[in-house]
Amino acid sequence: MIPYGRQSITDEDIQEVVDVLKSDWLTTGPAVKRFEEAVAEVSGVAHGIAVSSGTAALHAIMHALEIGPGDEVIVPALTFAATANSVVYVGGTPVFADVCESTLLIDPASVEALVTDNTKAIVGVDYAGQPCDWDALRAIADKYGVALVADACHSIGGSYKSRPVGTLADLSAYSFHPVKHVACGEGGMVVTDDDELARRCQVFRNHGITTDARQRESSNAWFYEMVELGFNYRLTDIQCALGASQVKRLAESVERRNAIARRYMEAFLEVDGVTPLECSPDVLNAYHLFVVKFDGDGVRDAMFSYLREREIGVNVHYIPVHLHPFYRERGEEPGQCPVAEKVYGQILSLPMFPGLTDEDMDTVLNTIREGLRSV
Ligand SMILES: *Cc1c(COP(=O)(O)O)cnc(C)c1O
């Protein structure tokens, strides 16, 4: 099987993890700080707060922004459910915006139409790795005085108008799940330039306690205070050592992903009935996913089965979140986001990861060509 995404682990990565296992600190130790500093640096911001998943990063962000009951947060309909769920965790209401048909990125016009007196934040998702139109989103956020959040779980290592992902919103969330760019097993991080928002995320990931065990040990103090209700969302040194080692190869892996994308794009120019997403010349796309759209009724479903039967691990990203039963029960319904609902029937994510070989790509492309002739 050629999967749609796969991690790359080197001997150096393994050695870094072994070194932690032989050290004094398995969690809340020096590898956490090292990883946070490395990710903050590639993101061009002052603070990184490592947490146990991308979902925990989004939850911490909603907490830091003091989103609560009665507050609305605008999110795109075409994303992983966690983007919207994080708003529900804190008692807020996600409001689903539609996406642009050519890029599947959140549509700024749809966002602006949904702003009300209760809107507290806008979340852009850099779908498939392409940064959103952050200038347009920033203009809307500033016009209405609301916070701007990046769900950057697909786009670490990318940039928009030469500004790195991480600097484009007030707070950004990363995931270190193995199908993402940097693998920790499970893991996530909030990055921000804002000192106070960073402090609120740090307290939140550690039960709402204002100091961590390492700080208390170094100052020989036992006293601590729990000042608010937080969670145990810490990431271990074992995971951070792996992440810190992986981040060193981030630029190289984004480059390889772009080379793969160029090859797919060129090949699909010659194939009728399949269209890759458009990519703006203003961005460095981090290409977490390579998504194509199939024309014609039922073609995507037929191609999904055809490719899966031939060991090509394609997938669909995503079922529009407002169509899930949980959100339907909360009053969402089909028809709210017509573009997202339409493209959901057309999209397929093809294999895209740095270890994908040219031979694997030939197999994928040939099987798609054959499939389109026979389905
Ligand atoms: C992966 C992902 C998340 C959640 O990350 P986890 O680390 O799996 O919790 C959130 N949003 C998007 C867009 C993602 O792709």
Structural class of the secondary structure composition?
A: alpha/beta
List the uncertain runs. Answer: none
Average predicted local confidence, pLDDT: 97
Report how far the terminal alpha carbons are from each other.
21 Å
| Small ligands present | pyridoxal-5'-phosphate
Compact summary:
The protein is an alpha/beta fold and 375 residues long.
Question: Could you please describe the fold and organization of this structure?
Answer:
By secondary structure, this protein is α/β, with parallel strands linked by helices. The protein contains 14 helices and 15 strands. The protein has helices at residues 11-21, 30-43, 54-64, 81-89, 108-114, 134-144, 195-204, 213-218, 237-247, 250-269, 299-309, 325-329, 338-344, 358-374; strands at 2-3, 47-51, 72-76, 93-97, 119-125, 147-151, 159-160, 163-164, 171-175, 188-192, 274-276, 283-284, 290-294, 312-313, 347-350. A hairpin with a 2-residue loop joins strand 7 and strand 8. Helix 1 runs antiparallel to helix 9, helix 3 packs across helix 7 and helix 11 (299-309) crosses helix 14. The longest helix is centred in the C-terminal third of the chain and has 20 residues, at 250-269. The chain is globular and about 70 Å long. The two termini are 21 Å apart. 50% of the residues are buried. The chain binds pyridoxal-5'-phosphate.
